[in-house]
User: Which sequence fits this backbone?
């Protein structure tokens, strides 16, 4: 058994000592969604620090825990706070929480994030349904011996963001009058924001939004056969698209402002994801 798989199994066992809750949907809460727990009938919370060996985020606003509970009648586990590759963790640690939620029984992974808008028709505060992704310089989390216990060596990636889940989210947006952009999310490593030349490159390559998370998580979840969907909150237009420089504070502030709509859409979408 590989070290990575052994560590994962130890973390799963540690969670199972605390709860026997079986989630259907695993949700990663991005910037602005930190207080989403208000919308969950909470059954159990586990701070990441209570799970031996679990990577704990160092980013302000990302201090983390798992929240188990139900949204409507759908059992969910939410990650309040994620770890990012730029914090210095091995990419296998960055995706450990995703694999853990999969092993707890989650069939669906709902990824959310704050992202910079690359598409010139986007506006700060827009929500974007992720239709596909581009990994740019972020290492593939499947590099190394294949974890045969989880999935195959060469997983297909032709429909990572499940078309039927995309359709459910579109429906939820229509029913709740939430305006929804659609596009391709690109992950760079961060932690520096991009240069204007890099943003022009990314637009040429076909990305609509840019961020520092999500793609590696989607690759790991796809490997183990989870169904995946995702929404980005466009917190700002990317570098060079406006006259002002980018700050983390501004990104968080804009994400907080878009949060009410984001939460409404997330809740309505999850409720459609019951069996
Ligand atoms: N670039 C990268 N990541 C981000 C941005 C951005 O402009 N905004 C929010 N996350």
Assistant:
């Amino acid at each position: 058994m590989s070290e990575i798989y052994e560590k994962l199994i130890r973390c799963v066992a540690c969670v199972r000592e605390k709860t026997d809750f079986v989630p259907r949907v695993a949700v990663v809460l991005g910037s602005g969604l930190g207080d989403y727990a208000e919308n969950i009938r909470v059954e159990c919370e586990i701070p990441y620090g209570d799970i031996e060996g679990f990577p704990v985020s160092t980013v302000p606003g990302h201090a983390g825990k798992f929240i188990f509970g139900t949204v409507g009648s759908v059992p969910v586990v939410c990650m309040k706070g994620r770890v990012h590759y730029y914090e210095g963790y091995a990419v296998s640690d960055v995706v450990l929480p995703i694999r853990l939620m999969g092993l707890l029984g989650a069939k669906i992974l709902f990824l959310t994030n704050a992202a910079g808008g690359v598409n010139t028709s986007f506006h700060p505060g827009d929500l974007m349904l992720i239709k596909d992704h581009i990994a740019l310089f972020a290492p593939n989390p499947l590099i190394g011996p294949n974890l045969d216990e989880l999935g195959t060596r060469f997983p297909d990636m032709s429909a990572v963001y499940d078309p039927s889940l995309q359709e459910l989210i579109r429906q939820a947006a229509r029913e709740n009058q939430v305006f929804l952009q659609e596009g391709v999310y690109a992950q760079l490593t961060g932690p520096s924001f991009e240069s204007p030349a890099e943003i022009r490159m990314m637009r040429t390559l076909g990305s609509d939004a840019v961020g520092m998370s999500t793609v590696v998580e989607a690759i790991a979840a796809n490997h183990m056969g989870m169904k995946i969907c995702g929404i980005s909150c466009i917190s700002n237009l990317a570098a060079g698209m406006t006259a002002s420089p980018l700050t983390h504070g501004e990104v968080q502030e804009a994400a907080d402002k878009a949060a009410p709509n984001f939460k409404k859409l997330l809740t309505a979408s999850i409720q459609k994801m019951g069996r």
